[in-house]
Amino acid sequence: MAVRVHFEGNNEVGVFSALTNAYCLVAIGGSQNFYSVFEGELSESIPVVHASIGGCRIVGRLCVGNRHGLLVPNTTTDQELQHLRNSLPDSVKIQRVEERLSALGNVISCNDYVSLVHPDLDRETEEILADTLKVEVFRQTIAGNVLVGTYCSFSNRGGLVHPKTKIQDQDELSSLLQVPLVAGTVNRGSDVIGAGMVVNDWSAFCGLDTTSTEMSVIESVFKLGDQQPSAIVTKMRASLVESVS
């Protein structure tokens, strides 16, 4: 199920929230409405936690995580770190990293198995990432952009990338990630995918401006709800083959 939501009139949902299969972080101080949309969709399955990082509300851009762990930048205060440790499930490892590119959500994109990172990310950060989040790490660009976390969003079931990503690059990324990818937009034509939406294996949240066409693409590629992109492959293949033969 894909849901539209906004944060104090701002459509960049991925800036003010971070979503995984084990927890959801939302920025402190937003309207209760923003929080309650996440709570209503997710509270039965995962904790929804109010958080800030280094005193900032842009939690989605500053941290990166999956169901195994969460990486936060070194600007995170001890108090914020303790709050996260108390709020998140015990199975989630939380690690603070010393990284020059401190907006981790902009330079790293991951699901529970694979991670794409900025080509200039520190080798040490890459090792911590692989160790904490239990992922394979690939240094990549998306449509020539080094900010992989900003221009793509993917779960364990599918992914959405920058609309100008070449077919050849999509195929390469898709084989690295082992999930189907589609080039598209959110928030009525915005190419900033990672900042414009958050997704996990069963739900997605995008800005209020997102059109119904964009919503249907998102629901289809991430296999949310009833729309399965493989319907033509599974249900119709037999009849297609029959009619051809």
Chain-wise SSE layout:
Blueprint: E1 2-4, H1 13-16, E2 17-19, E3 24-27, H2 32-42, E4 48-51, H3 59-62, E5 64-65, E6 69-73, H4 78-87, E7 93-97, H5 104-107, E8 108-110, E9 114-117, H6 123-133, E10 136-139, H7 148-151, E11 152-154, E12 159-161, H8 167-177, E13 181-183, H9 193-196, E14 197-199, E15 204-206, H10 212-221, H11 231-234, H12 237-244
Describe the structure.
- With 245 residues, the chain is of the alpha/beta class.
- The protein has twelve helices and 15 strands.
- Helix content is 35%, strand content 21%.
- Helix 2 (32-42) links the parallel strand 3 (24-27) and strand 4.
Biggest sheet, spatial arrangement of strands = 1-15-14
Strand content: 15-25%
Largest sheet: 3 strands, mixed
Share of helical residues: 25-40%
Work out the radius of gyration. 18 Å
Q: Kindly report the average pLDDT value.
A: 88
Tally of separate helices: 12
Low-confidence stretches: 227-237
**Secondary-structure element sequence?**
EHEEHEHEEHEHEEHEHEEHEHEEHHH
Structural class: alpha/beta
Number of strands: 15
Oligomer: single chain
